[in-house]
Design goal:
Elements: H1 10-23, E1 28-32, H2 35-43, H3 46-49, E2 54-58, H4 63-66, H5 69-79, E3 85-88, H6 102-107, E4 111-114, H7 118-127, E5 133-139, H8 144-157, E6 162-169, H9 171-180, E7 188-192, H10 193-199, H11 202-211, E8 215-218, H12 222-238, E9 243-245, H13 257-266, E10 267-274, E11 278-287, H14 296-299, H15 315-319, H16 351-358
Parallel strand pairs: 1-2, 1-7, 3-4, 3-5, 5-6, 7-8, 8-9
Antiparallel strand pairs: 6-11, 10-11
Helix pairs in contact: 1-12, 2-16, 8-13, 9-11
């Protein structure tokens, strides 16, 4: 199949693997940022193929996984209000809050609906003018343009029954936090292709220059990631720290200017709390004051809700590349996709869920399903 089979060519994959093994003369630790990339790397066994000198660790690139407990509790509180139609992407419904989740709210009679686009929520607001409709806007820069457009359109149409619970986070500040940590082991990054499609990769050039760490913007197919790994290994072996773009069929340096303009019109950059990691300065979006009428936190008075993280879940260490999911004593026993202790076991892009699907056999004795 065109645009699929050509990025899964076994012969070319073998050549790339051989070149990675030949090029890596010393140990290197690389991190992929995007959860979709994690899924491909684990599903196709790429870490095992490329040899012991190159270690892959998994970063905080799953938006479901980094949505903090307090936001989930706010979502649950709003969705539990009679007459509210609460609209969310499906993978958020089973993410555990402090005491419940959106799926249980729905099972208990709450009007919680699954959508594939914020425009679905706009349509519901038009069709139900007497009921408040709330869209749960989570994600990295990737989903921000569509969410910004939905709020912009709602304001244009005067849809006063529409609002948005915003939990957008930004990738570069999280990378900066990782690189500033004394525990950091990462020497090179596979930058997230979807985010860079929107934002470009200019911000990563500043990070590469400041921290002397290479970045390669990578795609999501096996050959994309093998080529990105090879480009990173070559840079590290040669002592270079630059930004290279492997994902040229989708990404350019400046990104989608129209999308970025709409985002900046609707959102402003603020400090944001990340699940398991904590507050990161200037790492998220919220609605600008002129769009406050569409801010669900203000509309429903849930701004003060807060929640501590469960101490037994090591998702924070997994999201920072300091632990693998199989290092968790609850992995595959107390924590499974059916009974998740943390968000990385829920999302299809979460590292724990990916390992549960493809790598349960690597878990230590006593930590397997």
């Amino acid at each position: 199949m065109k645009y699929l089979d050509e990025y899964r060519d076994p012969a070319l994959a073998r050549r790339l693997v051989a070149e990675i093994r030949r090029s890596a003369t010393r140990p290197w630790v690389l991190m992929e940022i995007c959860g979709g990339q994690t899924h491909t790397l684990v599903k196709y066994g790429i870490e095992e193929l490329i040899g012991e000198r190159v270690e892959l660790v998994h970063g905080p690139g799953c938006p479901v996984c980094v949505t903090p407990l307090e936001i989930l509790d706010k979502a649950i509180a709003i969705a539990s209000i009679p007459e509210v139609i609460f609209v969310s992407y499906g993978d958020m419904l089973r993410v555990p809050g402090s005491r419940s989740d959106l799926f249980r709210v729905k099972a208990g009679g709450g009007d919680v609906r699954i959508a594939y686009s914020p425009m679905d929520a706009l349509r519901l607001a038009r069709e139900n003018p007497q009921r408040p409709v709330v869209f749960f806007a989570v994600g990295f820069e990737t989903t921000a343009p569509a969410n910004a457009m939905a709020v912009w359109q709602a304001r244009r149409e005067g849809l006063r029954n529409f609002s948005m619970l915003v939990s957008h986070v930004l990738v570069p500040p999280a990378i900066r936090l990782l690189l500033d940590s004394s525990a950091n082991r990462v020497q090179g990054f596979i930058a997230p292709g979807h985010v860079c499609t929107v934002m470009g990769y200019e911000e990563y050039e500043e990070l590469a220059a400041r921290y002397k760490v290479p970045f390669v913007v990578g795609g999501f197919e096996p050959l994309d990631l093998l080529e990105a790994i090879l480009l990173l290994v070559r840079q590290l072996e040669e002592g270079r720290a630059q930004v290279e773009n492997q994902y040229v069929r989708s990404v350019n340096r400046t990104g989608n200017q129209a999308a970025r303009q709409r985002m900046m019109e609707v959102f402003e950059v603020v400090d944001r709390n990340w699940r398991g990691i904590g507050p990161i300065a200037q790492s998220g979006y919220r609605l600008r004051p002129e769009y406050a009428a569409f801010d669900a936190e203000k509309v429903f008075g849930v701004e003060a809700i807060s929640a501590p993280e469960p101490p037994e879940c090591i998702s924070a260490l997994v999201l920072q590349g300091l632990k693998k999911p199989v290092d968790c004593p609850m992995f595959g026993t107390r924590c499974t996709p059916a009974t998740p202790m943390g968000a990385p076991m829920v999302s299809s892009e979460g590292a724990c869920a990916v390992y549960y699907q493809y790598r349960r056999h690597t878990a230590p004795a006593g930590a397997q399903a």
